[in-house]
Write a structure and sequence with these properties.
Blueprint lengths: L3 E3 L2 E4 L4 E3 L7 E3 L14 E5 L3 H8 L4 E5 L4 E4 L2 E7 L7 E7 L2 E5 L21 E5 L12 H17 L3 E5 L5 H8 L7 E3 L1 H4 L2 H5 L8 E3 L2 H6 L5 E4 L5 H5 L5 E5 L4 H7 L16 H10 L4 E5 L4 H9 L4 E3 L6 H9 L1
Parallel strand pairs: 3-4, 4-5, 5-6, 10-11, 11-17, 12-15, 12-16, 13-14, 13-15, 17-18
Antiparallel strand pairs: 1-2, 2-3, 7-8, 8-9, 9-10
One zinc ion binds next to loops.
């Protein structure tokens, strides 16, 4: 096995490195800058060129990073490593690992839908594919993003006409910038939480277009009340901090809304169904396109997906996510 799960995360013994390690390690290969993949404290980091500034912002300016352009390889102890676009967020990468003629690809998070804020997902062929499966159920099929962006613009317009502010809950890295890009032709000013604002220069330097954006300070919220669109991460509890300063409507933007929308009462606005992960169709197609001899699923419940692909004749199994030292020893004994 070129890569195996350990308590610290996916490990390549031949190259002595971890991919998206869960703990401090000597050498960390990072698929993208989301906090469940890029963690503090490792000695050395290897990532894609576009991920580097995002990683420095999140993990510290002075961390030791080697960054590679997509498709350019480096060698660690004879193991050839290269990054290839995953289409998830800016800088997100699949990690291709080749050793003595054997090729493994670790997908990281990925999506196959178009997204102007990052390079499109690149199908790779390999012997073994380790795929995420966040939305590995047939119910998850994303609508055309443009359909959802039209819904967003109509919702915002209706709120403005009613004298209401519009609050969007979205992750600060990736989703928020994707929403901003969808509104790039808007004449209106968009207010964003400071966490979102801090990532924008890196997108702008990659040529991503945005509308006029200002920080969602209390002063700006009052100044633009009755017309503002405010984007903030769910954890910031923006609605609570708005208090009595203005009247507002809120909406969240997530793949999980596909399920939630069926549960909501009819008189409540449904969230937008836009995800930065592959839907069922995207997962099935991406996995089949690798022509891998074996596929391991991780980062989600892969039970339905692995059954479906196994029936198609593929060799697919779930990789244990939170492997403990005890269970690792047990699996080595048997
Ligand atoms: Zn992610
Ligand atoms: Zn993730």
């Amino acid at each position: 096995m070129l890569i195996r799960p350990t308590p610290s995360g996916l490990y390549c013994e031949q190259g002595d490195f971890y991919i998206d390690p869960k703990r401090k390690v000597n050498r960390a290969v990072i698929t993208h800058a989301h906090s469940d993949h890029a963690r503090r404290g490792s000695e050395k980091y290897l990532c894609s060129k576009s991920s580097e500034p995002l990683l420095r912002l999140r993990l510290g300016k002075s961390i030791s990073i080697q960054a590679l352009e997509y498709g350019i390889s480096t060698s660690i102890c004879g193991v050839i490593i290269s990054f290839h676009p995953a289409g998830h967020i800016l800088g997100s990468a699949q990690v291709r690992i080749a050793y003595k003629g054997e090729v493994w690809v670790v997908s990281g998070d990925y999506k196959t839908y178009p997204d102007p804020t990052c390079a499109p997902f690149e199908p790779l062929s390999c012997h073994t594919f380790i795929s995420e499966c966040t939305f590995g159920y047939p119910i998850y099929r994303w609508p055309d993003p443009n359909h959802e962006w039209n819904r967003l613009e109509n919702w915002w317009k209706t709120n403005r006409e009613a004298g209401l502010s519009s609050v969007i809950n979205a992750y600060s890295l990736g989703k928020a910038q994707r929403i901003l890009n969808a509104l790039k032709d808007s004449e209106q000013t968009v207010l964003v939480h400071s966490a979102i604002l801090s990532f924008l220069p890196f997108y702008i330097s990659e040529g991503v277009l945005f509308p006029k954006v200002m920080e969602a300070t209390p002063e700006n919220i009052i100044r633009y009340r009755d017309q503002a669109l405010i984007i903030s991460p769910p954890s910031s509890r923006m609605e609570k901090s708005l208090g009595d300063s203005c009247s507002w409507q809120s909406l969240d933007v997530s793949g999980w809304n596909q399920i939630r929308s069926q549960k909501r009462k009819k008189n409540l606005p449904n969230g937008l169904i836009v995800s930065d992960h592959a839907d069922w169709e995207g997962l099935c197609q991406a996995i089949q396109a690798t022509e891998a001899e074996q596929t391991f699923l991780t980062h989600g419940d892969g039970s339905v997906l692995s059954r479906w692909l196994t029936e198609k004749g593929l060799s697919v199994s779930q990789l244990p996510e939170n492997i403990s030292t005890a269970s690792l020893h047990a699996s080595q004994i048997h």
